[in-house]
Every structure is written in C-alpha cells, then in structure tokens.
Amino acid sequence: MARIATMLASGTEIVAALGIADNLVAVSHECDYPPEVVGLPVCTESKIDTDGSSAEIDRRVKQVVEQSLSVYRVDGDRLRELKPEIIVTQTQCEVCAVSEQDVVDAVADWLDHKPEIVSLQPDDLTGIWRDIERVAAAAGVPERGEALVLGLRARMLAIADDAAALEVRPRVAAIEWIDPLMAAGNWMPELIGMAAGINLFGEKGKHSPWMRWEDLAVADPDAIVVLPCGFDIERTRAEMPALTDRPGWADLEAVKAGRVFLTDGNQYFNRPGPRIAESLEILAEILHPESFDFGHEGAGWDRL
Fold first, then answer.
1. Start-end of H helices in the chain
2. Do 195 and 112 fall into the same domain?
3. Which of 42, 63, 133, 210 would disulfide-bridge 145, Cβ 3.0–4.6 Å?
C-alpha cells in the first residue's frame, strides 16, 4: 500500500480511522492523535510564534499573510528522503494548516517521482465526508472510506433525531477566536442545528466571519460556546478575560444562566475529520445536559 505523508492533523486522523496508520511516513507538527502517530517524522513547522495572547497571535498571522507569505514551512528535503507516494494537505484555510501551494512548492523540483497530492476542502459536513472518501480512494481502500462515512453519519443522525424531539432550542453563539472576535462557520452551524440549537453567527459552508462585541451583546445568546482554533480548554480559559472584562459581559443571558462553555477546539471542532462525531456529542451535552451524557465533560468541554 502507498506511503502517505499528511500535512494536517485532520488528515492524519482520517488515515488512522481508515486503518492504514502504518502507511504514514510523515506528519505535520500539529499531529498528535491518535497516540500511535506521535514520534513519526515531522515535515512542517509554523513560522508564527504561538505564545502570547489571542490578539498577539492574530497580529503576527496578519503580518505574514499581508506580505503574501505562508504561515507554515514544509521540509521538502525530508519529504523527498521519505518518498511518500501520497501527500494529504488542504485548501480550506491557509492559516489553519499547510496549504496545497505550500506542498506544491516543496516538491516542485522532485525529479525522481511526483507524489499524488490529495488536497482536502471541508467547507461543511458534506465536504468532510467527501474528503474521507477521497483519501480512502487515493490509498486504494475506497470501501473503508464508504464504511467510515456511513458509520459516522449514523452516529450523528441518531443524536440529531433524539435532539429534534426536544422542545427547548437555545440560541447559540459559537466563538472561534476571542480577540478579535470571530464566529464559527463552515460545519459548525450544521452541528449546532443537529444538537437542537439555533445558530446566531456564521453560515454553513462559509468561512468563519469576524464579529463585533456589540453584535454579541445585542444578540444576547442563551448559550456561548468558545472553541478557539488551536487552543485547548486551559489555554482558552486563560484567554477569556478579553471577553469577561468587557463592560456588559455580566449582563448577558448566557453568563447569568451559567451557560458559557469552554471546549477543546483544537482536538475537536477545528479538526474536520472522524472526531466531528465527538464534536456533536459535546454540543449535545452542552446544550441539553438533561438528555445527553457522552462523558466528555472535563476533557472535551468545561464551564467557564
């Protein structure tokens, strides 16, 4: 079976879920799940210092992007030594992970062989299913891709069916970046709807939009779910003063009701791969604790 290199965490998780993790010869610097991929050769690195506040990270990223530069560096020499036949990358977001152009540039001068580049574009849930099947097809195991998608969809539809019978549908603000504020788009509106919530910001299939504090205050959501890209719960909690110190924060309905939730966006919501099913489970627990308990509290999410 083909030798595979993955340039993003969700791609690595897809390969592993297909049962072909043994074919991985290289991963990205962000690939940390499942545990067996830790220790594999790493062929990417970030050019951005991710220490500091949300605002500082945002400023550094924008400075690089404004110069028409990539946020990531691909180790083309090491990739060439490892000789992958398939490289999995993405075109969905050039800030979130190594892009297709980064990979093309890294392998441009390969003369001995040209690996197949599988570029993922998971704009919504349908895109995630399509990407899983594309990786499986490229690896020569299309039937595994079909079975994986069927299983994940069945798990999620069972939750959606149970949630659809609930009378209460909280109005939800999903926050993907804290400072400056960004709402969650792409597949998040679908997940919120499947978990019997009403999504207030962001649109299915569209990139996450910037938002203003005033927009959040006026909307006054019933629940606020914070899932910053690349942050775990501890890091998210440390960043929350950028919101909680704002005048009017304590007056929000979600705050008064104790319905502000911090999630591990890095491991779940921001990885469009097999654990999107666990992401829905987390949302269902958060929004309807009286009806759902999948055991994710404390690891996948916590209260502010």
1. 9-17, 54-66, 76-82, 100-107, 125-138, 142-164, 188-194, 213-219, 233-239, 241-244, 253-256, 276-287
2. no
3. 133
